[in-house]
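User: My advisor, Dr. K., asked me to get a structural model of this assembly before our group meeting. I'm new to this, so sorry if the format is off. These are the inputs:
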Amino acid sequence: MAHELSLLAHIASIAAGQSAAFPHVLLAPGDDCAAVRTPGGDTLLLTVDQVIEGRHAPSPPGGWHSPFPGIDSLSRDELLDLYARKTIARSISDLAAMGGQPLCALCTATLPHDFPPEAARVLAAATHRWGAAWQCPVVGGDVASFASAHPGPLTLTLTAIGTIQGPPVHRAGAKHGDHVYITGHIGGSLLPSGLGHHLTFEPRLREGALLRHELGPDLHAMIDVSDGLGLDASRIAAASGVAIELDESQLPLSPGLTDAIRALADGEDYELLFCAPHAPKALGETPVTRIGRVTQGQGVRLRRPSGQTLDISSHGWEH
Amino acid sequence: MAHELSLLAHIASIAAGQSAAFPHVLLAPGDDCAAVRTPGGDTLLLTVDQVIEGRHAPSPPGGWHSPFPGIDSLSRDELLDLYARKTIARSISDLAAMGGQPLCALCTATLPHDFPPEAARVLAAATHRWGAAWQCPVVGGDVASFASAHPGPLTLTLTAIGTIQGPPVHRAGAKHGDHVYITGHIGGSLLPSGLGHHLTFEPRLREGALLRHELGPDLHAMIDVSDGLGLDASRIAAASGVAIELDESQLPLSPGLTDAIRALADGEDYELLFCAPHAPKALGETPVTRIGRVTQGQGVRLRRPSGQTLDISSHGWEH
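Assistant: The format is fine. Below is the predicted structure of the whole assembly, which you can bring to the meeting.
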């Protein structure tokens, strides 16, 4: 993962170097989404993510052919449905973190060379169904199989395109004196209940749009927690040129969890983390919790109940 | 490939079934690009393609680590540059086939688990450089590595987004009485000159835009030849509800080729095939050749010099 993060930083610097040549590119790599202006003046949000068998989702122990069930009594088709759901939901979560609304998506699948044809149909139907469920119709795609000489795991790629009226909410606007808030609970992926949150989370699309509507320009910075609270908070801090101090006793742990340090290592909360001078206590039925504040300096520190502070800037989950 | 084509047809039918729920989707899967209307009224063109080591581009015989060179005296970095070029060019060719102009692109790479970090940087830089070269800046992406337990080949995915003023040129408009034209030459991938055309072709972006400008509504149908002239012509024929008759003696074979039947099996010409009542003889320096006509019926027939006709509806190249 360190190698991937370093590579992504390298890519962001390449893209930044090109931005002068393309004034319609409003926001290049380095945020939840890129932002691009169309010739007619719309702002598009764009994000792409991959779900790879064995990395982001479990591999069925006996392979994709029968006999099933493998994992937690799921049938093969139920597991494929969760693959499709996660593939769509991760990108929807990125749109939510900018305050945007989905427009459409494109999906590719690279299939293991012996992937059963009927499983591919189940996967295609599930992808379209989950896209439609989040008002993000899958309008295009590509299907290829790995060659038998170069086998590979089931790999799904989803590009989601969204729209937003007015400026997107990015990572770089946190201000000294802001409070730090998070939606929902953290640590859900760690619960010992089967497949867990990381395949079944609900992207905070409605909440992102509500926050943008209610807070307006006071919504200074936002990100979805996809790699861990410490790591994602440090991205806001670095982009904004500030430090973030979180209060362990305030963290809204998922019911059943007591160890905040372990919960911080959960990379796939997909909650919205944001910085603002104020915030509502809830968005519909989703709680909003104040968990810390923005200060001068850099990095992310956790204030422990003992009074100690712990640097958690790199606390996250390795995919 | 038959399995993939059947799956793609299945997906097109799923997407068609959803289209009533999403009136902003102008054109769902089944053409070179999807077309979507933004809230502000712009028409976006969207396409996604994959380049998979061993399927769409050669695998270095000794793997991605030294020692190189493997293929045709190319260095590793030169081969990676061709991977990046092809990844971008295939999608640009799809935009060209609708008459559109590039807006931006998103790229993912799934790396073999032992892929050298410095090679990943070369690949990232090359992808951005080729995107910029076709006025299609890469604004976002994702990088992941295959887990060592599930190794896979180098896999690149590119989503390109374009724009178009007015209606896109799709496949379904060919009319009885139209002539059938093709840009450039066919069969170039078969030439015994090293890596060949399929990694170095020039997408016909300028030509697609010029045709749309010069022919206006007379440009009835267009496609890029990416799976073989027979197969791609049959897609126009099926979508338009017509038959296409091609004249073997008129086919503009790449210099050095004499066997038209073999040239037809070249799947990666990336020339533009279009149907119109008339056409210019050239677009800049790119020749345009009349190769047949649109008739009543269905399928694609090749009229041979002997007077025989041959059904070439499924003549293409298996990736």
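One thing worth pointing out at the meeting: Chain A touches chain B through 74 residues (CB under 8 Å).

User: Perfect, thanks a lot.
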